[in-house]
Amino acid sequence: MWVSRFSGLGAHAIRRLTQGKYALVPRTPYMHVSSCRIKSPLQLPPQTHRYRFTTSATDSCEDGNEEEQTINVTFVETDGTQKHSKVPVGTNMLEAALSNDIELEGACEGSCACSTCHLIVADVDYYNRLPDPTDEENDMLDLAFGLTGTSRLGCQIEAKPEIDGIRFALPGATRNFAVDGYKPKPH
Ligand code: FES
Question: Domain 2Fe-2S ferredoxin-type spans what residues (predicted)?
């Protein structure tokens, strides 16, 4: 009974089709969707939109490989030497300094419990782009030598596209030891 019923429905559909009641719709070609920001030409925004890419790296969607996005960061050492580095987005500035052989101490290893990762943001404009320091960071900054109006703790600053091109000056001394060549020796 079921078979004949379905057969009847099939015949009905074919009849309607031949009478022009149903339109044959061509199948939409399968479109690959990946995790890229712009997934297909159909998803492109109107031409009136303009995008400004401030980071030095690009996202690559080919073969599923995404290049690591980095920003440009410069550390100015106490003798005036400038060290330029590419820092992966999401990395904090203590990690960035250490991985670029910058002499920044980081005694508490980034847990915001010391002031030895003290950095001075060289440009006020960049300083203003950073999120406000937390109360914990402010407490630790109060202990830092040579505190300035643009001082921050390196371990609390995360690399983000907005701060691409930021420059940091290292202070001449920290609470634990001087970084201008002099290191106290035990008596
Ligand atoms: Fe101690 Fe940043 S390493 S506060």
Answer: 71-174
